[in-house]
């Protein structure tokens, strides 16, 4: 017999930018020995983080008053809302290299008194312009997804897709 605490419903929350997804699920629901809900929740979280890491990193650098090195970016990511995300420090460096290769960031290696030299990143003028474009795309995508997740309009009303 299951104890009372196993029948309670847990609420899982995923926040990406200004989009928050909530899911009520039974954490003890098991499918073939695996917790299917936890697996699917981890999968969608990875997909969302993968798709938003570049804009989040660029946002941190655009909004910073000074250049940042990789570890600082990672700490800001973790401390942004007081919770750790599934993005690890190692995952940030390929994103930083990619943004630099696209000429959206510049970098400068500066000696450190506390250890090895650090590579500091700053957005380029092109990076600032692209960031604004990405924000507009993000807003359209967020609005489109919110219209599906939380329809507030009358039935049958067509909502624009992110690419329109």
Summarize, please.
With about 160 residues, the chain is an alpha+beta fold. Helix content is about 45%, strand content about 20%. Helix 1 packs antiparallel against helix 4.
What does this structure look like?
With 164 residues, the chain is of the alpha+beta class. It is built from four helices and five strands, in the order E-E-H-E-H-H-E-E-H. It has helices at residues 36-63, 70-79, 89-101, 125-149, and strands at 10-16, 19-25, 68-69, 105-112, 115-123. A three-stranded antiparallel β-sheet has the order 3-5-4. A two-stranded antiparallel sheet has the order 1-2. Helix 1 crosses helix 3 and helix 1 (36-63) packs antiparallel against helix 4. Residues 1-33 have low confidence and may be disordered.
Strand content: 15-25%
Ranges with pLDDT <50 over ≥5 residues?
1-33
SSE topology string: EEHEHHEEH
Helical content (DSSP H or I, runs of 4+): 40-55%
Return the structural class.
Answer: alpha+beta
Q: Tell me, what's the shape? A: globular
Topology:
Layout: E1 10-16, E2 19-25, H1 36-63, E3 68-69, H2 70-79, H3 89-101, E4 105-112, E5 115-123, H4 125-149
Antiparallel strand pairs: 1-2, 3-5, 4-5
Structural features:
164 residues, 3-stranded antiparallel beta sheet, 5 strands, alpha+beta
């Amino acid at each position: 017999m299951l104890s009372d605490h196993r029948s309670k419903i847990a609420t899982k929350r995923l926040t990406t930018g200004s989009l928050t997804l909530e899911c009520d699920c039974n954490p003890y629901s098991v499918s073939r020995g695996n917790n299917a809900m936890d697996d699917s929740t981890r999968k969608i979280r990875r997909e969302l983080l993968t798709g938003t890491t570049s804009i989040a990193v660029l946002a941190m650098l655009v909004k910073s008053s000074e250049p940042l090195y990789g570890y600082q970016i990672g700490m800001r990511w973790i401390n942004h809302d007081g919770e750790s995300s599934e993005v690890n420090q190692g995952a940030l460096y390929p994103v930083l290299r990619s943004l630099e290769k696209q000429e959206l960031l510049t970098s400068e290696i500066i000696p450190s008194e506390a250890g090895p030299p650090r590579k500091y990143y700053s957005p380029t003028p092109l990076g600032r312009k692209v960031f604004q474009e990405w924000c507009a795309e993000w807003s359209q995508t967020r609005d489109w997804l919110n219209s599906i997740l939380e329809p507030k309009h009358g039935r049958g009303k067509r909502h624009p897709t992110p690419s329109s």
